[in-house]
Amino acid sequence: MKSTHFTVLRTSRGSQAALLGGCLIAAAAAAMPWWGESNWMREFNQIACYFIFASMWNLLAGYGGMVSIGQQAYLGFGGYAMLILANLFDVNPFLAVPIAAVLTALVAIPVSKLAFRLKGGYFAIGTWVIAEVFRISFSNVPAVGGGSGTSLTALAEIERGTRESVTFWITLAAVVATIGLTYFFLRSKQGLALMAIRDSETASASQGIDVGSVKLGVYLVAALGAGLAGALYFVGNLRISPDAAFSVNWSAFAIFLVMIGGLGTIEGPIVGAVIFWALNKFFSDYGTWYLVGLGLLAIVITLVFKQGLWGYLQKRFAFRVFPIQRRLEISGAHVPAAAAEPGPVKA
């Protein structure tokens, strides 16, 4: 007689090799200030901020089922919080970046009380309205330049090379942290609870999941990440204005990155960010035609590859760089007949 043995696997050799490769790339990238050009670091800062913001949107919508088109409210708030701390309170701009992200999460607590009163499409539109309220509010604050915005004067005394290098290292660390923390969160019990809520809030509640607490936690994490992206973006940009900070284009580009790469995958925003960077690098000079092209590309990919490019490859080749699912490996071994009696199987 044979007995069947079950082993729950959460990684594979391919994913382990990919993770090792990613660590080596990150280590090599950390040396860029010594061998790269300054414009490379500026480009990395820009696309990294888009990636962080898109990853937070993906966590909120792709894994949590809360589709928002107003997350730019928190991105803009993070940028302004960093500027206020640096310009008005003499906080080191680089130290102000994580503080601004935390302040953004704190602001999201009362805002969530309002946003969570809305469901479905009303939630999406409501978040956009909230972002507009943020934009109008900061447009009426003279201390931060009002509607025309202002510059980050606190960085004027820092030498340019030092400023660019430190900004690059902080941004790189933020990218690694975003990927790593998202990965380990989604592999945790809270991550499983979040995906269960996305599929059915009623069923999740019936299984003992505290739906409200899980949704609030993810909402605050997404706000913190958006605030971090905003603070990093405007540290690199050196100037902020309400129209730039709270533009709905932030959400549009985040949706583009996620839908192109793959909704509900950690790898999707990475793939989307690389594609977006390449398109922006070579075709942005075409103006409005560039935006039309982005829209057409998004339509074509969503029609042909409904799960996004990485989603298609993942389904086609069953390969995941960041596996969050649990796989069951079955193996047989000879055992005495008495031990092979049927019974409940526990994995």
Overview of this structure, please?
The chain is mainly α. The protein has a domain at 21-247. It is built from 15 helices and 4 strands. The longest helix has 27 residues, at 160-186. The relative contact order is 0.19. Keywords: Cell membrane, Membrane, Transmembrane, Transmembrane helix.
Strand and helix order: EHHHHHHEHHHHEHHHHHE
According to DSSP, the number of beta strands is 4
The major pleated sheet works out as: 2 strands, antiparallel
**Oligomeric state as shown:** single chain
Kindly report the spatial arrangement of strands forming the biggest sheet: 1-4
**Any low-confidence stretches, pLDDT <50, length ≥5?**
333-347
Terminal CA distance reads 21 Å
Which band does the percent of strand residues land in? 5-15%
* Average pLDDT figure: 87
In helices, the fraction of residues equals 55-70%
Counting H and I runs of at least 4 residues, what is the number of helices? 15
User: What structural category do the secondary elements indicate?
Assistant: mainly alpha
Estimate the global geometry from the Cα principal axes. Answer: globular
Radius of gyration, whole Å: 22 Å
